[in-house]
Design brief:
10 strands; Malonate decarboxylase subunit epsilon; single chain; 304 residues; Malonyl_transacylase_ACP-bd; globular; Malonyl-Coenzyme A Acyl Carrier Protein, domain 2; alpha/beta; Mal-CoA-ACP_Trans/PKS_FabD; six-stranded mixed β-sheet; Alpha-Beta Plaits; 2 domains
Length: 304
């Protein structure tokens, strides 16, 4: 059975996901979460506005993903690869053994703090569907924005100052965009605005020990496979200020010919993108199921 994992990024988080974390996280991981977010147990993190804040979203999403992975890992076949969308690459590296879950949580909190410090003011991200990349890039540059993620040839994500996103929306619609989707993210991820954060995070990761990963991690920037810790960590630093070619990453997953693809984390956006690219390969998200048993039974059914 050839299983591939996808770990989602920011944007799909809901109050229900964080109730799951608050009620389910335990032991060393809960202690690490309380150090990163001391107010988690006070009921003040449940609003969508709070959950969009970088310093809250990144640690909580990572914990939610690790909780799911820890429940499932002994019941699933060893993955042939993992890939993570933006923040999700942290979880992919952790699942493959690059660092422990508690260390990863601390790193996510540090990552968020560095990103927030690198870009003062109000920023955001906007998904743009239905337009050619060259046109979107040109309009974005005029508004002080940048293409941050390429999900598909006509599905891009822009990032930059909130004022630029507001000013460009009507122009994108007038140019023929089929859909604009503001993301629940308040930082200009994967753009040069975060160059300082990328350098600082890379320096933080550079001193961690090298070792063989349990399975390859495909970098979100270009789909390159890391089989040891050092290149995987280097990719984590680089991607903070570098555009992601998620379409290329999904193509790398497809070329490995998995029997099934499982998305771990809030939402099912990555599953939908993968199904558009490779409808011949079964793909589902953990959020599609009511129980871990349902996930395991589905994967077993994909083995034929």
């Amino acid at each position: 059975m050839r299983l591939a994992l996808l770990f989602s990024g920011q944007g799909g988080q809901t109050p229900e996901h964080w109730r799951q974390v608050d009620h389910g996280v335990a032991g060393e991981l809960r202690a690490a979460l309380l150090r990163a977010l001391p107010t988690i147990g006070e009921g003040r993190l449940a609003s969508p506005e709070m959950l969009a804040r970088n310093r809250i979203a990144q640690p909580l999403i990572f914990v939610q993903q690790m909780m799911s992975w820890h429940r499932l890992r002994d019941r699933l076949p060893r993955p042939i690869c993992a890939a993570g969308y933006s923040l999700g690459e942290m979880a992919a590296c952790c699942a493959a053994g690059a660092f422990s879950a508690s260390d990863g949580l601390a790193l996510c909190a540090e990552r968020a703090a560095l990103m927030d410090a690198a870009a003062a003011g109000e920023h955001g991200m906007l998904a743009v569907l239905g337009l050619d990349e060259a046109l979107v890039a040109s309009l974005a540059a005029e508004a002080g924005l940048a293409v941050a993620i390429r999900n598909a040839p006509r599905h891009l994500v822009l990032a930059g100052p909130r004022s630029g996103i507001v000013s460009i929306s009507d122009r994108l619609l007038a140019a023929g965009a089929s859909r604009l989707v503001p993301l629940a993210v308040q930082t200009p991820s994967h753009t040069p605005l975060l160059a300082g954060a990328a350098v600082a995070f890379a320096e933080r990761l550079a001193h961690m020990p090298d070792a063989r990963l349990a399975f390859p991690v495909l970098g979100a920037v270009d789909g390159t496979a890391a089989r040891t810790v050092r290149p995987a960590l280097a990719a984590l630093g680089r991607q903070i200020a570098t555009p992601l070619d998620w379409a290329a990453c999904l193509q790398s997953v497809r070329e490995l010919q998995p029997d099934a693809v499982l998305e771990i984390g809030p939402g099912n956006a990555l599953t939908r993108l993968f199904v558009e690219l490779a409808p011949e390969i079964p793909a589902r998200a953990c959020d599609d199921f009511r129980s871990d048993d349902g996930i395991v039974h589905w994967i077993e059914s994909c083995a034929g």
